[in-house]
Amino acid sequence: AQVLFCTLNTPQVDMEKLLGGQIGLEDFIFAHTRGRTKLVQVLKSEEALGLTITDNGAGYAFIKRIREGSVMARTPQVGVGDVLEALDGRSLVGARHFEVARLLQELPRGQHFQLSLTEPRRAWDVLPPRSGGRAGVPSLGSGRGTLRLRSRGPATVQEQPSAFEERAIAKVDDLLESYMGIRDSEL
């Protein structure tokens, strides 16, 4: 529920790099999670708001592009990657991008409306420095984890053993192999 969308090979919120098709062995997947929620009042002063909207297929429609010089480009609180959560109090969660676009297009020109948006958290905002965490920022682990994506159920981070634990595992494996003929690091 925390992952909004994923990008391929960039930690930046780059809508041209959305994860969608084939993934190669050399590719990296970056998960963009929920950041702060914003309530934005907008006046629809033109017929078009200047938004390109897409969705992740899992219930979140978000802003893919903002046309330069448009109504939304002049609204500084709105940014690329923002998830459209609600329009005038009506939830947009679960709506496809074309449904959200239609609702925005149907708003009469000259009308004020309120958008509830959630911006993606920036990776550099949550990562503590290598030497240790900042005051008030929770530790994100050792940095030796693997993100496990599952077809059913939530994604989890599986921590990898420390260098000390790896040496201990290797010694136990050596003992098991010499006495019992068994070598299994998962044992």
From TrEMBL:
Compositional bias (Low complexity): 139-148
Native species: Sylvia atricapilla (blackcap)
Domain PDZ: 39-119
Superkingdom of the source species: Eukaryota
SMART domains reported in the protein's UniProt record: PDZ
Protein's name according to its UniProt entry: GIPC1 protein
Family: Belongs to the GIPC family.
Annotated gene: Gipc1_1
Alphabetized InterPro entries for the sequence: GH2_GIPC, GIPC1-3_GH1, GIPC1/2/3, PDZ, PDZ_sf
Entry-linked Pfam families: GIPC1_GH1, GIPC1_GH2, PDZ
Region feature Disordered, mapped onto this chain: 128-159
